[in-house]
């Protein structure tokens, strides 16, 4: 299976932690990383600026649909950013750990 990172952004740390615990605890992701970010984006015709939290989930490609569904169910945004990135290269033992813990 191919390891991927699924990324979303949320408005506060409490939501980020709740989402991280739900997906890792539910076996959808091997781990989640949360970081505070500064976002600038266009929303409904206006340029917006705000503080957000990026949540990066390490999982496998076969779990993407379930991960996306879980994020959508837990997310407070009208249009959540949800996207996946393949790892071009990955340390084999770490890849095995992700696969073992996200299945």
Walk me through this protein's architecture.
There is one protein chain. The protein has a 4-stranded antiparallel sheet. A hairpin with a 2-residue loop joins strand 2 and strand 3. It is α+β, with helices and mostly antiparallel strands and 103 residues long. 33% of the residues lie in helices and 40% in strands. The chain is elongated. Helix 1 runs antiparallel to helix 2 (64-74). The protein has one domain (3-101): Alpha-Beta Plaits (2-Layer Sandwich). It has helices at residues 13-25, 64-74, 92-101, and strands spanning 3-10, 31-43, 46-60, 82-86. It is built from 3 helices and 4 strands.
Give a quick precis of the structure.
The protein has helices spanning 13-25, 64-74, 92-101; strands at 3-10, 31-43, 46-60, 82-86.
């Amino acid at each position: 299976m191919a390891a991927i990172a699924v990324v979303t952004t949320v408005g506060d740390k409490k939501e980020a932690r709740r989402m991280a615990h739900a997906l890792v605890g539910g076996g959808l992701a091997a781990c989640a990383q949360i970081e505070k970010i500064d976002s600038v984006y266009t929303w409904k015709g206006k340029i917006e600026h705000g503080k957000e939290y990026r949540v990066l989930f390490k999982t496998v490609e076969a779990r993407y649909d379930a991960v996306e569904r879980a994020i959508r169910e837990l997310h407070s945004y009208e249009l959540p950013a949800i996207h996946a990135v393949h790892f071009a290269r990955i340390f084999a033992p770490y890849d095995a750990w992700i696969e073992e813990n996200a299945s």
